C-alpha cells in the first residue's frame, strides 16, 4: 500500500509486544476511565425495562467462543436484567455453540438468583439449523420447531412454554449475534414479518452494518455494539462485570494503535519529502 | 433429468414460498410450513456432509503423504475422540448411548465432551481470533496513510470512532463547557455512527439487497444455474 | 480429584493459548498442532450438537414415537441421505435434488425478506424531514443521512458511465462510503481488542489469579 521503504519500519513484533502490554497493564492497574451511556444502549435498556413481570421473552445466543469476550458480558447483563424484571426467558441458538453460551450465562447467574427454576423461569431450547427459514417456521408454529428443549425434555411438560405458539406470545426478541445467521435474520423475520419488538447485541465488526436498522421503522429497538456497549449496560443495571473491567485496557490499546497510525503517516511523509529532495 | 428436475424443483419451491407470503391460507401456508421443516432437516444433513468432506480430505492428505500430512492425523484423532465422547456419554444436557457417564464425571468434574470443549476448544477458538488484535494494529500502522481526500475521510472517521467509542474519549474532552458539548469526542463518534456511517451502510444494504433480489429471481427462473455444478 | 482435573483443565487451556500465540513470532509446529486439533474438535462439536438438537428431536424422535403420523418426514430424511451421497463422485448428481430444494426455499424467502427489510424499510427510514428535527445538529445529520444514502446508492449504479450529475453524486457517495469504512474499521479494532482482553482476563485471572475473575 505505502511506498515508504526508505524509512525504517517498526518491526511488527514490537507492535505486537506493545499491544500486549497496553492491554495487560490496565487489567492489572485500574485507571477507572468514566463510562458514558450512549443512545442505542439506553434504547435497548428501556425496552428490556418496559414490560410487566412474567412476560415471555426470547433471547437467542447466536455466537461462539470466538466472540465470547465481546458478547458474553452483554448476554449476562441483559439476562440478569430480565431475571430482575421477573421475565420468563426462552433461549434459542442459531449457532451450535450458542447452546453452551446460554447454559454458561445462566450458570454464572445461578448464585444471584437461587429461586429461579429451569422450565419455569427460563429454558434452553437449544440449537436449530437453518437461520432465517427456521425463524420463519418459529413464527408460524413455534412448538414444531422446538418439540423438546436441548436436554430432550418435552416442552409440553414445562410451565414456561404454556401458551407459546408463535411470536405474538413474546414480549420481545433479543439476539446476541456474531454474524450470519444472527440479528439480521431476527430483524427480517421476527420484526419485519411478525412485528415483534427486536433488539440485540453484536460484535464490533458487525455493529456499523447493523446501525441502519435502528431507525424510525423500529426494525431494531436500540443496539449493543462491542464491549463498550456491554460496559454501558453493566453501568445501567449497576452491576459492573468483565466488560467494565476491560474498558481501561480497551482505551489504552486504542490509544497505542492511534499512535502507531500517526507514526506510520509521519514516516510516509518524511519518506516522500526525501524522495522529492532527491528529485 | 440430472439438471432439469432440480431446476423444476427450485422453480416450484421458490414460487410456492413467494406465493404463500401473499396467500398464507391453505394449501400454500401448509405446504410452505412443511417445506420449512424439511429445510431444517436437510440442512442438518448438509452439516454432516461438511464433516464427511473434512474427513475425506484429511484421509487423502495422509494417504498421499502431502505436505504437513502428519498434522492431519491429529485432526482425525481429535475429531473422533470428541465425537465418540459426545455420542457415548452425551453433552452437558444430553444423555449419550451409555448414559450420562456419572463415573467419569465424578472424577474429572465434567462429562468428557464438556471437558474437551471447556478446556481445549473454547481456548483454541478464542485465542485464534484474538490474534487479529495484533494483526489489525500492525496493519493500521502500515496501511492507514492519509494520501488523498478519500483516505483522509477514512482515517479521520476511524480515529474519531476509536477515541470516542471508548472511555478515553470521555476523558479527553470531558472538560468542554455545555455550549461546546457537540465537540465532545463520544458525541462526535455517535454523530458519525448515526448519520454518515448509517448513510454509507444503508447505501450498501440497499445495493446488496437489490442484488440479492435479482439473484433470487434469476435462481427461481432457472437463469442462474451455477449451484448445480458441472456436467 | 475433581479440583486436580479442574486445575489441569486450566493448564491445558493455557498451553493451547500459548501454542496459538506462538504464531505471532512465526509459524511453528506447536501452532500447527493446535490448529489441527481445533479443526477436529470443531467439526465433532457441530456433528454432536446437530444430532442432539436437530436430528433427534425434529426427525428421529417423531418417527420413532409416531411413525404413521410423521411418515412425511421420510422425504426430508431421504433427501438428506441424497445430500450425503455427494461424497461419492459418481453419484454426486443425486445431491442436486436436496440442494435444489434448499436453494429454491432460500431464494424465495430472500426475495421477500430482502425486498421488505433491506430495500423498502430502509428507504422509508430515509424519508425524513430534517427541518422538523429537534436541534440543529440533528438537522445537519438528517440532511447528511438523506444525501449520503441517495448518493451512495447512485454510486452502485453501474449501468451508466459515472459522469456529469451522476458522476458528482457518485463521488459524494464514495465520500460517505469512506466515512463508513473508517467507522467500521474503528469498530473492528474495538472488537478485536475485546477478544484479546478476554484472553488476558483468562490468563491473568483463571490461571495466574492476578485479577478478579
Topology summary:
The complex is a heterotrimer of chains A (279), B (231) and C (213).
Chain A: H1 12-28, H2 39-49, E1 56-62, H3 68-84, E2 88-93, H4 98-109, E3 122-127, H5 131-140, H6 142-145, E4 173-177, H7 183-191, E5 198-202, H8 207-210, E6 224-225, H9 226-236, H10 242-278
Parallel strand pairs in A: 1-2, 1-4, 2-3, 4-5, 5-6
Chain B: H1 4-22, H2 28-63, H3 69-89, H4 102-108, H5 112-143, H6 149-164, H7 167-173, H8 185-194, H9 196-220
Chain C: H1 2-21, H2 29-65, H3 74-84, H4 96-126, H5 136-155, H6 164-207
Description:
The complex is a heterotrimer of chains A (279), B (231) and C (213). Chain A has 279 residues and is an alpha/beta fold. Chain A is 47% helix and 11% strand. Chain A folds into 2 domains: 51 residues; 202 residues, 3-Layer(aba) Sandwich (Rossmann fold). Chain A has a 6-stranded parallel beta sheet with strand order 3-2-1-4-5-6. Chain A is elongated and about 80 Å long. Chain B has 231 residues and is mainly α. Among the domains of chain B are: 64 residues, no CATH class; 69 residues, no CATH class. Chain B is built from 9 helices and no strands. By secondary structure, chain C is mostly helical. In chain C, helix 1 runs antiparallel to helix 6. The mean pLDDT of chain C is 96. At the B-C interface, helix 1, helix 2, helix 3, helix 4 and helix 5 of B face helix 1, helix 2, helix 3, helix 4 and helix 5 of C.
Low-pLDDT runs of 5+ residues of chain B are none
Report helical residue fraction of chain C: over 70%
How many strands of chain C?
Answer: 0
Order of helices and strands of chain C: HHHHHH
Secondary-structure class of chain B: mainly alpha
Distance between the termini of chain C: 23 Å
Poorly predicted segments of chain C: none
What's the number of helices of chain B? Answer: 9
SSE order of chain B in H/E notation? HHHHHHHHH
